[in-house]
Amino acid sequence: MKDLLIFLAKSLVDTPDEVQVVEKETDNGILFELHVAPSDMGKVIGKQGKNAQAIRCLMKAASSKENKKVSVDIVQ
User: CA dihedral defined by 53, 57, 58, 61, rounded to 10 degrees?
Assistant: First the structure.
């Protein structure tokens, strides 16, 4: 799932070398922290948060196969 998030983020940004994902286990499931360059924050979030919402939706769909709860935080 981490690879999917990296692929999605790198396809949206101008500087794909700065995309990093940190995976953390929590009591509720898995937390992915997506780190991007400050100039690419708007592209990852999108207008009215549509890109961020789509990324979260795809990650939740991918996690349903593994019966795990997944959340994605976008961090600068």
Answer: 170
Euclidean distance between CA atoms 70 and 35, whole angstroms: 17
Among residues 65, 75, 74, 73, the alpha carbon closest in space to that of 1 is found at 65
**Residue 47, pLDDT above cutoff 90:** yes
Distance of alpha carbon 58 from alpha carbon 48, whole angstroms = 18
Say yes or no to pLDDT of 67 above 90: no
Query: Is the sign of the CA dihedral 34, 36, 39, 43 positive or negative?
Result: negative
* CA of residue 40 relative to chain centroid, distance: 13
| pLDDT mean over 7-18 | 95
